[in-house]
Amino acid sequence: MSGEKRRATGGTVRVVIDGELCQGQGRCFSMAPRLFGFDELGNGVVLGDGTLDAETLPLARLAQANCPEHAIFIEGDE
Amino acid sequence: MSEKPPVVDFATDFDHTDPAWVKDPYPIWEDLRQRCPVAHTDRFGGAWFPATHAGVSTIAKDTEHFTSRAVIMEEGRPGEEALPAPIGVAPPITSDPPFHQMARKLILPAFAPGVINKLEPQIRQLCRDLLQRFGGDEEVNASWDYARLIPPNVIREMLGFPEEDTDRFIDIVHMITEAVDESEEKRLEDFAPIEEYFIAQMEDHQEHPRDDLTSYLLNVELDGNKLAPEHVFGTMVLILVAGIDTTWGAIGASLWHLAHHPEDLERLVNEPDLMPVAVEEFLRFYAPVTMARLVKEDMEYLGCPMKEYDWILLGFPAANRDPVAFKDADQFIIDRAENRHVAFGLGIHRCIGSNLARLELRVAIEEFIAHYPRFELADPTAVTWAPGQIRGPRQLPIRILE
Lengths: 78, 402
Description:
The structure holds two protein chains of two kinds.
Chain A: E1 5-6, E2 14-17, H1 27-31, E3 36-38, E4 44-46, H2 57-65, E5 72-75
Parallel strand pairs in A: 1-5
Antiparallel strand pairs in A: 2-5, 3-4
Chain B: H1 10-13, H2 19-23, H3 26-35, E1 38-41, E2 47-50, H4 53-60, E3 66-67, H5 99-107, H6 113-116, H7 120-133, E4 139-141, H8 150-159, H9 166-177, H10 184-207, H11 213-219, E5 221-222, E6 225-226, H12 229-243, H13 245-259, H14 262-270, H15 275-285, E7 291-295, E8 299-301, E9 304-306, E10 311-314, H16 316-319, H17 354-371, E11 375-377, E12 384-385, E13 393-395, E14 397-400
Parallel strand pairs in B: 2-10
Antiparallel strand pairs in B: 1-2, 3-7, 4-14, 5-6, 7-10, 8-9, 11-14, 12-13
């Protein structure tokens, strides 16, 4: 999964969805509604700025591990 | 179908309508993965079948070398009657870029989660009404008399078709997805009354507009123009075809599983919070839908000499069983935490009804096991499976236990 990690700025850990890759499979927002919502076309969107803490990081990783399109990235996750 | 010779070697002569494939395709796919990851057949005028997740994924995302102009593998190819690519006869599933994206964006909002989630109470009530019909029967047909009846009623209401026509829909779907050995001429002939029926519905909606998908399609604009009647018609056919057998198959296969895995049934009854995760595993393990593509031009691809107009049978159910992509791929794990299944396809043609399908599947199982917390197969040999690209049990006699 190393390919899905991206460098973040400022030491924070953050989850992002690549809008080019997302096809609206709907796994993220059904699995982790605390972190993800959807737009009017049904594509996944990150709620807020996506900053993760110790409690939400595992949820983001779970959503990432269930995205068939590999569209979820966790920046700054070592 | 009966005059076709049985398949001896699926690597060189595969046929998805062969009785062995229809009954239990999983060992066939596993064998292919090990010795011939892209199978070939001269049947259907020439076709290829990638059995691995990598092969399926590569082709599903490659709209440059493959066209979606036809997605049901049959003897014929899209003829003069078919609209030219990139629109196809049932947009957007039969469309290619760039038209595809426009056609898809038109109907995506109608299937977005916010809209679909509102249907939950009505689907739940439908399931309860169907279960009530069983009364105190000790044996029920969980597929034919339950799973089969849920999706057509949901789709009928979305399209705004008359309730009394519901029973016709399944025949229409089977004519399109299962009569694939018929000649193109015969297929067009059989399709005529279906076309008449849809045109009558469109005319009725034009005269009496209402709040449903048919009226929406008739009035929505693309680049400032209303959709061509062929486009509206094709999309209505698509919604009907894609929304019925598929979800029926998923519900039926899930109930079949629970009927002979009492430990999973017990866990679901006792741990209802498990349901969303379990639904994804049902979708992975028993993915009902196989799609098709056509090769655009002669080329060497995945090491195979593909010819223009060869079919690709795009087996998402096979991809879901590939051990390279899934740990313990051949095991049904009801609380599987990591599950990148591709039951709804991959790439730009991701099933537009996936939110609806997932909702129907969850509610149908929830209501069934709430009504019948314990049940088993009444006669395993009586279970029959749908032939063709949409898999699921047709006959599923279940014995209700105390």
